[in-house]
## 1
Amino acid sequence: MRHLLGLQNMPAAELQMLLDTALAFREIVDRPVKKVPTLRGKAVITLFYENSTRTRTSFEMAAKIMSAEAINIAVGQSSVAKGESLKDTLQTLQALKADCVVIRHPMSGAAHFAANTLHVPVINAGDGRHEHPTQGLLDMLTIRQVKGDLAGTVVAIVGDITHSRVARSNIWGLTTMGATVRLVGPTTLMPNDAHHLPVTVHTNLAEGLEGADVVNVLRLQTERQESGLLPSLREYSRLFGINHTSLANAKPDVLVLHPGPMNRGVEISADVADGKYGVNCAVEEQISNGIAVRMAALYTLMGANLPPVVDA
Amino acid sequence: MKLLVSGGRVVDPSQNMDSLADILIVDGRIAGFYNPGTCTAEAEVVSVAGMVVTPGLIDIHVHLREPGFEYKEDIVSGSRAAAAGGFTRVCCMPNTNPAIDTAAVVSYIIQQSHRAGFTRVHPIAAATRGMGGDTLTEVAELKAAGAVAVSDDAFPLQNAATVRRCMEYCAMLGMPLLTHNEDKSLTHGGSMNEGIVATSMGLPGMPACAEDIAVARNIALSELTGCHLHLLHISTKGTCDLLGAARTAGLNVTGEACPHHWVLTDEACASYNTHAKMNPPLRSQFHANAVKAALLDGTIQCIVTDHAPHADYEKQIEFDAAPFGILGLETSFPLVYTTLVQPGLMTLGRAIEMMAVEPARILNLPDGAGTLKVGALADIAVFDLEVEWIVDREQVQSKSHNTPFHGMTLKSRPRFTMLAGKQVRL
């Protein structure tokens, strides 16, 4: 594996290897002294063209736990504000001797562009509505931890599928590993051709949740309502909101995931978000798992020839 | 001054000719045809043995970028590319800077093309001032200066009342209106065809029906006004069906297609290849097949390129941010030959008809354009049908390199052109 750009077309063996590696690293994250020397002397540059606190911090944490230098470039403050092209910016980072570039960008394909431009490994930290592979992997790791196996698991992804890179990475990763994926959402937020994906498409939440093992709740951007794709957040919440009533259609031990940040009272009720009344909502575990997944990605792309970190 | 183009296979569909013949050219005009070796006139001989000789090709849809965007292409480089592609005439679209909306710009372009001397260039006037979509241009004056048609290409008119006014005015002056058919309210923000490829790539799509809706509106307005409507770069089955129905009903509507719309599909955009980004976008195989079928059954009258050069740095960018458009002039005939003629779907004569005779007829081009009839200007193209070559984006006459056909093996290649009996030297 030279880059981590997306989960589409990634073979099951590679997905398995990344998840196994992440699981092995997961324990380090909980150590009182969480530092291993595996990537000492390596420089990881995170290049973020979109605001993101959690993903950027997660990558930074992952790099630092493995003793790599983590340098964050928030684009608003750099030369991009002066109109520098993505190509020139990337080549500058390479000349600055980055060993790995982590890129978040509002346009789909920006990570592919980076991979085609650079000689060093590129990790896609989210490109437009295309993919967010480390989010997909951390969702898969969380499901595997709770459900034991991905194969045979029924996962309902609920919300704004059209604009969601999280949905796409989940679809490819989960189906490759043998899970069944259902897409649930209003037709205005569902790609017209979603039925060509390896999924079933549902516009009725009760039907989409029927017997589901996992519900992955997508964040609803409030601008969707402003741009006329929804009549109101109130109606969205009534039809597609995840709460105790709607969850009753899923399996009793249903696992609830959310990539964050949550709009309580819109796509997810506060009770469910807080895991009240016996709901298994794994939002915090997802965040901790995210560090392990990003450690696994950095290790796989930069440190594969080094001794395994768990023995260090 | 006498010249004998000798030993070639002459293919001129304007006079149903496909035979070995020597062509005598006197003072830049076609003077007669002779069985090979039988002409006794004292003439300089240009041997084209083993080659095919046709009327010079005509592309009525190119972007030459001058004035204003000379870093992408200019009239010298664009008309060189045209000559290299076997074209002796091109019609250039008005989205320059300033736009082709005054007689001065029309005259400037014609003058520059004469100075360059590679290809005849006929400007197409903007439908509205500055292509702003509001005020009509002074079409009468533009026509008098040499503009051959009126178009909204690149800035498709959204307001139906404006299209109606343009058509009424153009009809009065006998000028065709060439429309880029796109309902922007449906394509806004889109960068490729709407479909499963775009969905997987996470790119906002442009649905095929955005073209169909604009076509249906424009045909209805053509019926109302009597204006000759020419549909630019047809890319959907819906447009083919609407054009077919309009022509069956006897309406004054014609249409054109570009090779990329039947040779490629939206799969070519995979891995975010900006050289496969143009507007209208590459569609699905379903639509590509429909465009091809409409070319073969005569629903679509002519083949053009929509040659649209862009600088490397403009295309080496995020897919969403890259400009629409690809090169076309230097690959057009070889693509037509390789994908339609060689497989036996279309005769060579019909291909030349769609690339020379029909374009001249549709825009009523002067001086016997698109024919080798005796008395016509000796604008000639010569092709080698046997050669096989690999498209190399670095080996082009154009200033830009944005072709999606890089690396493709093509059969046949233009060898040279003549303007008024004078060989064009590149």
## 2
Amino acid sequence: MSYDVLVIGGGPAGLSAAVNVRARGRSVLVVSNPLEENPLWKSERVDNYLGLPELSGRELLETMRRHAEKAGAAFRDGRVVSALPSGGQWYVGIGSDMEHASALILAAGVARGKKFPGEAEFLGRGVSYCATCDGMLYRGRSVAVVGYTPTAEREAEFLRSIGCTVTYFRQPKRCEIRGGQQVEEITCDGVTQAVDGVFLLRPAMAPTDLFPGLEMEGGYVKTDRRMATNLPGLFAAGDCTGGPLQVSKAAGDGLVAGQSAAAWASEAARKGRTT
Amino acid sequence: MAVKHFKTADFVQTVGNEPLVMVDFWADWCGPCKMLSPVIEEIGAQYQGRALVGKVNVDEEPELARQFGVMQIPTVVFLKDGKEVARKVGAMPAGVFTGVLDQYL
């Protein structure tokens, strides 16, 4: 199904964006990891969010999510693994599925682009970021899953169910991937395993991996005052655009990005009708 | 037809006489492949007569996928006079692929 706006990330920035897209009468889909995997979920107390003091991160997230649901935002659990502009639409790969929208808002939190040794070199030659996308190419073979979320453990289960022999590395600090033409082995925190494939399942893709050509500044996504990036139809909000990494700032960013993306979608719809 | 669907049986014969070939390895359960499909069609039409643009369904032609060591899809492989000269992994904008084609034309 086609949406006016698709939001990547379901934290305060993404939810605020979704509420504000709906306030402008546009349709919106929020794609995110499960709410309990948001880093804010673990905060015992947030005391500087105006008007709602003394709430836990979990309470704040649940309140915001309910607000966005009530506003009419659609939700989908999943990790965005690719994005491609084509014919005035953004096509977004979510696991092995796909959605499209006129405008995108990146609100996926802080995801650093730092890679493990061998990761970039063996991408597509044994290194993958999506088990449900590429798992079928590894049926009956030995693979490693380097997982940083509970969702990653479910993806490892999927790989086992299709006949892969899976070695699971839970949140290792350091890994190195080695091989010749293709991946042959991986070492994580001193443990080496011979494998044909490595699935690196981080909470979110680094912005520049998801959007080649995206302008960054000081390690964060560069935006203007409308929260527009240098890529047409792509907006960004929240921690991925820089500090302070606080809920109030994220919600404010989300409001601006939501309004800007809704305006972009309205303009696209208007052009579509007149041409 | 702007885009050819390659089969293992006739791949070598088909590609052997072509100076420049672009092959998209895909499957119908792959979201990013679906995203890339219209882009490949468009390039096929754009370069008709100058380069052979084709697709390989990795489920139907696993042997071809194995020969090319395809371990993630979509993977797009470029062949110049039958030899691999470039490879792009993942769904990318058309310019990335046409850039490679223009370089080898």
